[in-house]
Amino acid sequence: MKLVFEGVTAGYAELPAVRDVTLTIAPGEFVALVGPNGSGKSTVLKTVYRALSPAAGRVLLDGADVWTANRRTIARRVAALGQEEHGGHDFTAREAVRLGRYPHLGGFDRLSAQDEEIVTAALHRTGCATLATRPLSTLSGGERQRVLLARALAQQPGLLVLDEPTNHLDPQHQISMLGLVAALGVTVIAALHTLDLAAQHATTIVALKDGRIAAAGPPEAVLTPRVFREVFAVDGTLVPDPVDGRPRVLLRGLDR
Fold first, then answer.
1. Residues 150-180: pLDDT tens digits?
2. How many other C-beta atoms can be found within 10 angstroms of the C-beta atom of residue 88?
3. What is the structure's pLDDT at 83?
4. Is 220 helix (H, G, I), strand (E, B) or coil?
5. What does the domain layout of the chain look like in residue ranges?
6. Dihedral sign computed on CA atoms, order 172, 36, 158, 118
7. What is the pTM of this model?
C-alpha cells in the first residue's frame, strides 16, 4: 500500500510535535523513522493509525484520507503496534492474537476454521506457539511484544505501523523480529531507536529533528557524518557488514 504524508502538522494543545511532514512511502517499502527523543517519531505514527488527528495536512493510504475514510476499512488495512500496548493481560496469547481477525468479521460473526489457521500461523511465525495458552500477565515484556506482533500479522494488513517494536526484546529477537517484518512484503513504517537495526533492515530511513524531516533516503544517503552530528550529536560511521555486506553503524562520542 502507498502511504503519503502531505504537509502534516500534529501535536498536543497548541504545541505541534511535528511540522509540515511531507513524505511518500511506496508499496512494500520498509521506512524507519529515527531521531532523538522528542523528535516526533511517535507523533507521526499516531496520525497514521488514527490516534492523533493532524492539525494541518493529510495522511493518504492508497489515495484515501485515513481520517475521512471508513474506520472499519482502515482497520482492515492498517495494523499498529504502539509503545504502550499491553493487549489485555487477562487474555491468553492465542486470544490476544485472535483479536487481529476481528476487523475482518461482521458484527455477529465468529472466527472460522480459516481464521484459526491464520492465528496459528501468526503464532508460529513470531515464535509464540509455545505461549498460546499462557495468560499475557505471565509473560515477559519481550514475550508480550512478540504476541502483539503476531496479532498484527493475523490481521493480514497492507500497512504495518510499529512504534519501537524491539523494546524489551533481547538481541536474538530484535534481529528475528525485524527480519520477519522486512520479509513480509507489506508496507512498513517503524520508529526505531537503534540506528544499527534501522540501517540493516530498512529500505529507507527518515531522520527527524525537532519535529521536522532532517534527511530521508537509503541508509547510505542518510546515515552520514553530518546527520550523525547534527541530528544525534554523536560521531558515526557507516560500514559494510563483513559477512553479508549490509550497512552497519559505529557510533562514538563527539570529539570536543
1. 999 999 999 999 999 988 889 999 999 999 9
2. 13
3. 72
4. helix
5. 3-85+157-252
6. positive
7. 0.92
